[in-house]
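Researcher: Here's the sequence for the chain we discussed earlier.
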Amino acid sequence: MDAFVELSAELTGFSAEELRSTGLVEQYATLARGASDAEIIQLWYTGVWRGVIPSSRAYAEGLAWRAVGVAAPGTDGPGFGSWERRPRGSAS
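Model: Thanks. This is the structure I predict for it:
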């Protein structure tokens, strides 16, 4: 498992700790046996394996969302009463 995490960290640019925090290391290591580097990168960034999303968590934990600093659409609501506050950067 450690070898897969270290390879994934090298390929994705995210630390081993960040990858482990997704809770997907075991699932991805199983899926990615014999996979190319490009397939491993795609799996981590998109949460998609050969055209299929293996779990809802895979979608939500995709590294693409972390890279741009947002939650995956549909996974994290803005919170109660958020309609009452102006969006960041909007004019008063």
